[in-house]
Specification:
By secondary structure, the chain is mainly alpha-helical. About 65% of the residues lie in helices and about 10% in strands.
Length: about 90
């Protein structure tokens, strides 16, 4: 088989694999950026995860943590950022 025939065969067997690969690279890059931001915020003593409104229960053998205020804050920030990106792309 010639290289062009192999390319056609590969596209028939796995259509869209290039797009999936690119998507995985973008998602991975975003995860790395988010991780770096969280690390930097932690080193700057930003109280993300320890805000007033975060629910913490500590028993004798258990502890339950529900970051309610942090979840709301992250949701609002992401909503504003994604709204701005959508507005900018128009």
């Amino acid at each position: 088989m010639t290289p062009s025939q192999l390319h056609i065969l590969r596209e028939e067997l796995a259509p869209g694999m290039n797009e999936v690969g690119r998507l995985l690279i973008v998602v991975g890059a975003l995860a790395i950026v988010a991780g770096v931001v969280v690390l930097l915020l932690g080193r700057m003593n930003f109280p993300l995860g320890r805000l007033p409104g975060d629910i913490v229960y500590r028993g004798k053998n258990t502890s339950i943590y529900f970051p309610l205020a942090t979840s709301v804050l992250v949701s609002v920030v992401l909503t504003i950022v994604l709204w701005a990106i959508g507005r900018w792309r128009r």
